[in-house]
Amino acid sequence: MNLHEKLLSLYDSLFSENEDTAAGIDLFVVPLIRFNYKKSDYLYLLYKEILENDESRYRVHSTSISEHWKFVWNAFRGKPTILHYHWLECSDFKSLLGIVYKLFCIKLFKRFGGKIVWTIHNKMPHDRRFKNINESIRSSMAQRADLLHVHCNTAKRELCKFFDQPESKFSVIPHPEYPAEKLPRKKAIHKLNRKRDLQLSADDQIFLMFGNISSYKQIDKVAKLFEQLPENKKLIIVGPVKKGQMVYYHKIKKISSNSSNIRLIPHFIPEADVPLYHSAADCVLFNFRDILTSGGVALAQSYDVPIIAPSKGCLSELNGDNVYLFENEDELNSRIINFASGVTSDG
């Protein structure tokens, strides 16, 4: 089965033959689907086949926090209803208030007979704040959910133990693929130079770190290594600074400003420009401190660009000639240096 068929099978399994679903099933998705980013939004790509099929029995409702009452009301009226939740975490005191409201709505929804699917993207929030609160929130959600969606068997094994939930409650459906629009490398470099004045050359070997700038990605450790590499080994760090990460950003900025082969672009990248960076790159780097699933890795894979990444979570299941996994910082440095030197095998 393909991704779409597996998703439908997951939803279908929530209802017995005795339940009346002839009029269709309402599927509430949290958080909001970004319909303006149809080529890069995880949620849009996950539900794409349902959203674009007018005859589907599942009616998708992209749901904000203020609209949580809608799925509660739907379940209260006895309508067949699924709540599919993503990214549940508390990151600051403001979000803590929101979490209380969310959990209250989820509890009512479940009491009224609603079905809950939770996609677990991370074992715990990356920023490690409010650890005890987040553990409690996530354990509660894992218990309340009818089904838990993960992206690989490694995640299933890890989370089964972590949340003390039976394997039968987990469903493995892979991360959706991103549609790649690959350009010729020289053309991509030329366009990037015009847009960002990066002063890149087609003779440079370009390493890319793409996505939100945050400390769990340990970008600074990679940047320090590039300080020691030849000038034609370029590291391009691209992405907006995540909320609460300005101190870390300035740490990276200090390193990059003292190095002629590091380019730092701390901005949101429009969807139309994403192909430029991945088409120009010779290698995409990842140095997660902890990770379960990575959209950035899935994006790099869609462009068939060589990947250097930690052997953690779902990434440990990656294989192929273009994938170079590492276990620790020394192995990471060796991977980068070997790749930069043209040595890409373990032999």
CATH class of the largest domain: Alpha Beta
Instruction: State the helicity in percent bands.
Output: 25-40%
What count of structural domains? 2
Amino-to-carboxy terminus distance: 37 Å
Number of helices: 12
The gyration radius over C-alpha positions equals 22 Å
Write down how many β-strands occur, each being a DSSP E stretch of 2 or more residues: 12
| Strand order in space, largest sheet | 2-1-3-4-5-6
What is the CATH topology descriptor of the largest domain? Rossmann fold
The assigned structural class equals alpha/beta
SSE arrangement, N to C: HEHEHEHEHEHEHEHEHEHEHEEH
Overall geometry? elongated
Averaged pLDDT, please? 94
Sheet-strand content, in percent, reads 15-25%
Largest sheet: 6 strands, parallel
Query: Which spans of ≥5 residues are poorly predicted at pLDDT below 50?
Result: none
Level-2 CATH architecture of the largest domain: 3-Layer(aba) Sandwich
Note down, in words, how this protein is organized.
This protein has 12 helices and 12 strands. It is of the alpha/beta class and 347 residues long. The protein folds into 2 domains: 170 residues, Rossmann fold, CATH 3.40.50; 156 residues, Glycogen Phosphorylase B (Rossmann fold). Helices cover 38% and strands 16% of the residues. Helix 7 crosses helix 10 and helix 8 runs parallel beside helix 9. The chain starts with a helix and ends in a 7-residue tail after the last helix. It is elongated. The strands form 2 sheets. A 6-stranded parallel β-sheet has the order 2-1-3-4-5-6, with helices on both faces. A 6-stranded parallel β-sheet has the order 9-8-7-10-11-12, with helices on both faces.
